[in-house]
Structure formats: structure tokens, C-alpha cells
Design brief:
alpha/beta, six-stranded parallel sheet, globular, 10 helices, Rossmann fold, 38% helix
């Protein structure tokens, strides 16, 4: 298991006012709305989540880097656990000719409003019970999703990723390295249930039997 950063550049493109989220709004109410993962979370006011999650091509370099690192080739199959609107999967179809993609997300709204080119390959579902046979995919990816699970479901999801994957695996989770980053994470997050340092993440992933790679995003 290796620590690899494919996503921090994408993450840091967004400017965040951490104090505003806890001072100007009732953050507990906002979190309850966000955890429904509906329209408000994806395309509502910024206080509830993304404030409008629209395709802008930012995931193309990430797909290119992953495809190169994991040696993805035409005809390979890719699963995105927590695919959201399918933007990353769409970029994989641009990067790897004839790649076969599949995505699953807890949000029916995200699936119904996903990138049209990949919508037919996405479905609503839970990461703890992936509706795919053993060893179905050459590459399994999960970006900023698994930290939204309580620890007992987190372990199940990791074991499910192991079960359906037959090749490379890569996940990204929220984390912190300093007390300042921990405070920023707590201020900003709306849906996170598992808060760990990178070292704790490494321990938990290994203890759960996960054999893929991982990365973290930090709220600097």
C-alpha cells in the first residue's frame, strides 16, 4: 500500500472561508441538509455543500495521471465508488480508448444529473454492498467518499472494494496533519464521519485488509 497524491491540486483550486461556515450559518442544520445528498448538497447554496457541482474539466489531469500510473489500457474496466455526477469516469473514457466504466453513489440526485455521456453506466447504491461480482474491475477508485462512513461501515466498504477489484485500487480521504488543519476540517466538513491523520488512515486501511493505494486531502 502506497501513499500517492493525485488530487490535492484539484482540491486547493477551491478557496474556502472556514470561519464563515460556522459563524454565519447554523452549521448543524446545514449538515443535516447536506447528509441527504440531494439537490441542496450538489447544486444548492454553498452552505449545504458544493454550491453547484458542474463539469469544468478539472478531473482530466487526474484521470490521465491515474491511467498512466496504473497502466490502464483499452478494454479495461473501471469502477468509481462514490462517483457523484460521473465527471472522473467521463474523463477516463477520454483518456483510455474503449475503457468500460461503472459508478455507484448514494445520491440518486447525482446519478440523475450526471454527465450524460456516462449516465447509463451509473447507479444509486451503497459502498457497503457493491452490486458486482468478485474481481469484476481492473481498477477501483473512490475519491472523497469513504470518510463519510462511520467506522463499521467504512471497514465494510474497504472489504467490498477489495472483493470487486482484480487490479489497482486507489482511494482519497479527508485528513489532517496539524491542529490547524484539524480545526479547518472540522469547520468546513458537512458529511465527514471518520476523522484520522494519514498515519491512522494507513493503519486502518491495512487492518481492514485493503491492499490498494491511498491519498489524502488537507484543509490548509
Amino acid at each position: 500500500m502506497a501513499y500517492i497524491d493525485f488530487t490535492q491540486k484539484v482540491h486547493t483550486r477551491t478557496k474556502r472561508n472556514y470561519l464563515e461556515r460556522v459563524v454565519e450559518h447554523d452549521k448543524a442544520t446545514c449538515a443535516r441538509v447536506a447528509k441527504q445528498f440531494g439537490k441542496e448538497y450538489w447544486d444548492g447554496d454553498r452552505r449545504y455543500g458544493y454550491g453547484g457541482y458542474r463539469y469544468d474539466g478539472r478531473w482530466l489531469p487526474v484521470a490521465e495521471a491515474m491511467a498512466k500510473h496504473y497502466g490502464l489500457k483499452p478494454g479495461d474496466s473501471i469502477l468509481d465508488v462514490g462517483c457523484g455526477k460521473g465527471f472522473l469516469l467521463y474523463e477516463f473514457t477520454r483518456v483510455v480508448p474503449r475503457v468500460r466504466v461503472a459508478g455507484i453513489d448514494i445520491s440518486r440526485y447525482a446519478i440523475e444529473n450526471s454527465k450524460e455521456e456516462v449516465r447509463a453506466f451509473l447507479r444509486a447504491g451503497n459502498a457497503t454492498q457493491l452490486p458486482f461480482p468478485d474481481r469484476s474491475f481492473d481498477f477501483v477508485v473512490s475519491i472523497t467518499t469513504l470518510h463519510n462512513l462511520y467506522v463499521y461501515d467504512l471497514r465494510k466498504a474497504l472489504q467490498e472494494i477489495e472483493r470487486v477489484g482484480r487490479g489497482g485500487k486507489y482511494i482519497v480521504v479527508e485528513s489532517y496533519r496539524t491542529e490547524e488543519e484539524k480545526a479547518n476540517l472540522l469547520y468546513w466538513q458537512l458529511t465527514c464521519e471518520s476523522f484520522y491523520t494519514p498515519e491512522e488512515w494507513w493503519w486502518f486501511l491495512e487492518d481492514s485488509g485493503y491492499t490498494g493505494d491511498y491519498g489524502c486531502i488537507f484543509f490548509e
